[in-house]
Amino acid sequence: MALFIGVLVLAMAIIAILNKKLSIAVIAAGVVSLFASVLYLLMAAPDVAMTEAAIGSGLSTLIFFYVLNKIKRYNG
Predict the structure, then answer these.
(1) At residue 76, does pLDDT exceed 90?
(2) What is the mean predicted confidence (pLDDT) over 59-66?
(3) b/e string for 30-52 if b means 16 or more Cβ within 10 A?
(4) Theoretical Cys-Cys bridge with 15: which of 25, 28, 40, 66, CB 3.0 to 4.6 Å?
(5) Residue 47: what are its φ and ψ, rounded to 5°?
(6) d(Cα 46, Cα 42) in Å, to the nearest integer?
(7) pLDDT confidence of 74, banded at 50, 70, 90?
(8) What is the SS3 string spanning the chain?
């Protein structure tokens, strides 16, 4: 199970790096963080998993989308 999730993390990271659309890259980076939190949970580190899910997957993704929205408005 952990190996499968690890492969998914790598696949989503490659998608995040190689994708030309910024919104898809941000979503893929958020999914990487979400899968990493599942891996932390499988490794019996629930406190780290909760922090990664809240900050890495949730807050960071929201901040990235907020900044992308501001950039789009500024560039008009």
Answers:
(1) no
(2) 96
(3) bbbbbbbbbbbeeeeeeeebeeb
(4) 28
(5) -65, -40
(6) 8
(7) confident
(8) CHHHHHHHHHHHHHHHHHCCCHHHHHHHHHHHHHHHHHHHHHCCCHHHHHHHHHHHHHHHHHHHHHHHHHHHHHHC
Residue type, 19: N
Angle at alpha carbon of residue 40, lines to 10 and 33, rounded to 5°? 45
Q: Give the type of residue at 6.
A: G
Task: Find where tokens 């890259």 sit.
Answer: 25
Do 21 and 54 meet the contact criterion of CB atoms below 8 Å apart?
A: no
Work out the mean pLDDT of the chain and round it to a whole number.
95
* Token pair for 44: 């019996």
